[in-house]
Amino acid sequence: MAKIQQKKEKPMIKKFPKGFLWGAATSAHQVEGGCLNNWTEWEKKNALRLAKEAEEKWQKWQKEKFSEMFNPANYISGRACDHYHRFAEDFDLAKTGGHNAHRFSIEWSRIEPEEGKFNEKEVEHYRQVVLALRQRKIEPFVTLWHWTHPIWLEKIGGIKNQKFIFYFSRYTRFLVERLGAKINFWITLNEPNVVAAQSFLRGVWPPQKKNLRDYFLAINHLLTAHQKTFLIIKNLFPRAQVGIAKHQISFQVLQSTMINKLAKKLGDYFWNKRFLKKINYQQDFIGLNHYRRRIVEKGLYRKTEERLTDLGWEFYPESLFQALVELKAYEKPIYVTENGLADADDFQRKEFLFRALSALYSAKKIGVDVRGYFHWSLLDNFEWDKGFWPRFGLIKVDFKTLKRTPRSSFYFYRDIIKRNAL
Ligand code: FCB
């Protein structure tokens, strides 16, 4: 009897394997500052409208808490976190947080500001970024396209123009020839399904054109662009590991009716599986970006309103488990390339981390080959059409002074990393 009790009281230590990658993610447009691309152009035209629409769009508690949303300046990325000049300082912080990996993206519009004219100085900048990570023993995961591209490309239709494939391939080759020797992990595209849907199905992101045909065109161009650039990178550096960062939703059926099961199948196929299946011979790993589940009820997808984060997204870190398990079928190594929450007060982030990482651990336990976790995000940053008020950072950024202050969750995450265990 005494023995049994003792067993029960012992906390279960969830140990991660040696070499597990721990870090955080950012993207160029959201942190660098001083960008000139398709998004900065769109911001200028839409800031006023977005500030006006905030009144209708958000709940009372959000409007009271984040009054910046009514200020048009909130919707201009501007100098963002000035990470372009402060990357070394930011990587010092990542290092104190114990991070041994970091995901960031390269800003195409800096590399090729005019069609066919490549800027070697900017390549040098990113060489320094990679070097700064390497000096701190932080493994770089480099994203080639995190939704932003040069204005000249947007002018001819961006991702909905078939020429995107040629231009993206050329830009990739140029970069990989120069930086490839120092990089083991490449992510060609970030969340192709999200950007195509937001731009052409919902029509809320640049170029804001609702059109089903353009949606499929865009998705297909992104598919081919990935397949081509995969080969380009592998031909240049056969040992490089190449994948995409894929947004996955956990569709959960509570009542197992025919219609719910069918709706789950459809959601899974169109949102989660289609793109991944088509590129399965052209990916060395799967990058999983995961933020949410959807409940399938009466054949429809619904959100839950029980416990929310600042953006009104459900607080349910456990959905990471299902997202991971559903990727097992592809038989590839998996890195969680984004997972996190908007939580300005840092009231929920520690619990989120603990529960999400427990879910990750449980998935590993049943054989899902997860090899790393990148929290979104290292820093508070510019959250696309929402602007600066959603605070995703392990590190708080004061956007007036640009002062960085690690949040308490930053240290909580550091201690998990230190122990390599939960
Ligand atoms: C993901 C994006 C990332 C960030 C988070 C909150 O979909 O890839 O840039 O905006 O959402």
Structural commentary:
By secondary structure, the protein is α/β, with parallel strands linked by helices. It has a single domain (21-419), classed as TIM Barrel (Alpha-Beta Barrel). The protein is built from 15 helices and 11 strands. It has helices at 2-9, 28-31, 38-57, 60-65, 83-96, 108-111, 120-135, 151-155, 163-179, 192-201, 212-236, 258-278, 319-325, 349-365, 408-419, and strands at residues 21-25, 101-105, 139-145, 185-190, 241-253, 286-297, 300-302, 334-338, 370-376, 395-397, 404-406. The strands form 2 sheets. An 8-stranded parallel beta barrel has the order 1-2-3-4-5-6-8-9, surrounded by 6 helices. It has a two-stranded antiparallel ribbon with strand order 10-11. The chain starts with a helix and ends with a helix. The mean pLDDT is 96. The structure holds beta-D-fucopyranose (FCB). Beta-D-fucopyranose is lined by residues 27, 30, 190-191, 194, 247, 289, 338, 376, 383-384, 392.
